[in-house]
């Protein structure tokens, strides 16, 4: 029996951070190693262009960085097809057809795109490609007929839009070749981890991230800057745990839940200083990040091998995509000759 395909990916707009790690990468590795799926992981460079069109160097540089992050956390090209979006030409074609099956009004309702437009301060100059990126994302998922899409919480509206497009396409062309995907979302609290500044989402584009590639000193410096409780001034003052990023991260990264509960009690009561607490978080993060960082440095010794891996993955992905596109063209009736 053929295994279910899962597809997911990341935009090459920077290196990957610990939000990606707990919200998505960790689960991809588990799914990969379960042997139950045929995994596809895409570096979404075409999508990165929708808001970085004038900075191709950033995208080009980030391509290898993201690939290194993947290998460092344990994605294995022998088990997971790791490929580059722009190399799959069928995606541009499928996106064009989808564009006619969705209305401007529907796109305007997408809450994630709305929030991102605000965040990126486009003002009146929203690139049309950015506004319509959920459509191209629907093409990414459906060209591989992926059943499962493991993503962070911000991607929920994209999956819904994809499901609608599949129904519209199958309905318009009297076919059933396209498959409605299902999102696979992280456990509560992991789908959108906050930035070190306390902002609602750690993001490559917001400058509030701890990267998988950060060295130990950089991680320590970032934890020291971290947003805690502004009212907790003296060590003996009672402090707040809710909204305190240090505790949010301890909840996520420290396997010793009893220890975290004790620290919370002490902090709330008064008598636990921010510095001491932060030193503890630094240790907790280091034990998770050190092995990842070391593997990353080893892979970074051979960049041509990384590019070859991406080429091989893209060649394989293209074969699958082309098979779908053949059926798509037939269903629409543009196989004229
Ligand atoms: P950008 O700011 O360029 O959009 P990003 O940090 O949002 O970058 P993406 O490449 O857009 O990263 O997202 C890749 C995947 O990681 C998506 O599934 C997304 O939901 C997930 N993700 C991104 N940020 C976080 C976060 N802070 N916590 C959990 N998951 C996240
Ligand atoms: Mg994003």
Automatic annotation (TrEMBL):
<dbReference type="InterPro" id="IPR002306">
    <property type="entry name" value="Trp-tRNA-ligase"/>
</dbReference>
<dbReference type="InterPro" id="IPR001412">
    <property type="entry name" value="aa-tRNA-synth_I_CS"/>
</dbReference>
<keyword id="KW-0067">ATP-binding</keyword>
<keyword id="KW-0030">Aminoacyl-tRNA synthetase</keyword>
<dbReference type="GO" id="GO:0005524">
    <property type="term" value="F:ATP binding"/>
</dbReference>
<dbReference type="GO" id="GO:0004830">
    <property type="term" value="F:tryptophan-tRNA ligase activity"/>
</dbReference>
<dbReference type="InterPro" id="IPR050203">
    <property type="entry name" value="Trp-tRNA_synthetase"/>
</dbReference>
<keyword id="KW-0648">Protein biosynthesis</keyword>
<dbReference type="GO" id="GO:0006436">
    <property type="term" value="P:tryptophanyl-tRNA aminoacylation"/>
</dbReference>
<keyword id="KW-0547">Nucleotide-binding</keyword>
<dbReference type="GO" id="GO:0005829">
    <property type="term" value="C:cytosol"/>
</dbReference>
<keyword id="KW-0436">Ligase</keyword>
<comment type="similarity">
    <text>Belongs to the class-I aminoacyl-tRNA synthetase family.</text>
</comment>
<protein>
    <recommendedName>
        <fullName>Tryptophan--tRNA ligase</fullName>
        <ecNumber>6.1.1.2</ecNumber>
    </recommendedName>
</protein>
<dbReference type="Pfam" id="PF00579">
    <property type="entry name" value="tRNA-synt_1b"/>
</dbReference>
<dbReference type="InterPro" id="IPR002305">
    <property type="entry name" value="aa-tRNA-synth_Ic"/>
</dbReference>
<dbReference type="InterPro" id="IPR014729">
    <property type="entry name" value="Rossmann-like_a/b/a_fold"/>
</dbReference>
